[in-house]
Amino acid sequence: MKIDSLAPTMPGVSDRIETEPITERPRGATTVRVGVIGYGYWGPNIVRNLHALEHCQVLAVCDKNPAALKRAGKSYPGVKLTTDFAEVLKSPDIDAVAIITPVWTHFELAKSALENGKHVFVEKPFTSTSQQAEELIELADRKNLRIMVDHTFLFSGAVRKIRDLVDNGTLGPLYYYDSTRVNLGLFQHDVSVLWDLAPHDLSIMDHLIVEKPEAVVATGSNHLNHLADMAFITVYFQSNVIAHFNVNWLSPVKVRNTLIGGRDKMLVWNDLDPDEKIKVYDKGVDITKAEGVYDLLVSYRSGDVWGPKVDATEALKVELQYFIDCILKDQTPMNDGAAGLRVVRLLEAAEESLQARGRLVKI
Ligand SMILES: NC(=O)c1ccc[n+]([C@@H]2O[C@H](COP(=O)([O-])OP(=O)(O)OC[C@H]3O[C@@H](n4cnc5c(N)ncnc54)[C@H](O)[C@@H]3O)[C@@H](O)[C@H]2O)c1
Fold first, then answer.
1. What one-character DSSP code corresponds to residue 264?
2. Is the separation of the CB atoms in 215 and 363 below 8 Å?
3. In contact, 113 and 331? CB cutoff 8 Å
4. Of 45, 47, 62, 63, which is best to mutate to test ligand 1, by the most ligand atoms within 8 angstroms of its C-beta?
5. 188: part of which helix (H) or strand (E)?
6. pLDDT digits (tens, 9 = 90+) for 212-232
7. What is the pTM of this model?
């Protein structure tokens, strides 16, 4: 076990890393060797899942906080520990790096990882700016390396089921997507609630609604420091589909509710319900033009309610298995850098709108 002196904090992150020639993986290799940077709140979940996967070996865990490394060492005695991220990024034994650090470090660490020939698994939101995301995508393309952005919910049983219901036409053409993701905290030091919680919902929306968003309106407010702690975001599409998100760190109760309305069926997803996460309602409104009778005839449909079975496998397990498969099979993941960039573009537009108290910002 090795615990070096504390790694530098930004802005010096990139200063310490020199580019080395790409380490070629031996042809026909069947195991991906991973180094994980960041073992704070979320990092342990990544290491636990990677560690349990076949065809994957966690070779090293890096955190600049020695106390975090101590925890990692206790759970994974055989894993190399270091406070110096450059050791992970430069190791010829490591094929892929998982970056589970605060948002403002993602770009520099991911860039160095790619420059050193490593595939990258990086936390949401992908980067702090769309320019950074574009640079990383270009770099990965040039080096034929994979980027996967941790849009965890796409791999949950609930979202996989909802995607099926959308794709197979059960809901009919979509009318709206409306989600509430509120709780007390956890306040982040470097990003607002918009950049912390909304990436989940924006990535789900991006996954379910094929149409490209056209414009964003966001309002919000801050009460405890300079970062917004509540935000209301509306995303417009060229058609009449509309999406709305409520994210809030100042809610006394935790709510994870999403309504998805379609012409033929409507759906409620309560992620906190352990048994019936999704309910599909055969409810709707039909309007018929009737000549001579005031013009409109409205009829309300209220049929059966159905609770489809939802796979309970941990989303991160599914996602990380997919990451390893994509590397071994040389495939581009669906939650690649481009997917990360689409979310960052929406966040930038929402941030601009929020700062201008709800001005419409075109994408
Ligand atoms: N996908 C999800 O559901 C989900 C959930 C929580 C957090 N996250 C994301 O995970 C990332 C980390 O969040 P967190 O809550 O774990 O943060 P955290 O602050 O709890 O942990 C980050 C860790 O990174 C370490 N670190 C920071 N800079 C480093 C560097 N240069 N070298 C080595 N170690 C460094 C810190 O010491 C800390 O232990 C964020 O991007 C966040 O958005 C995702």
1. S
2. yes
3. no
4. 63
5. none
6. 999 999 999 999 999 999 999
7. 0.91
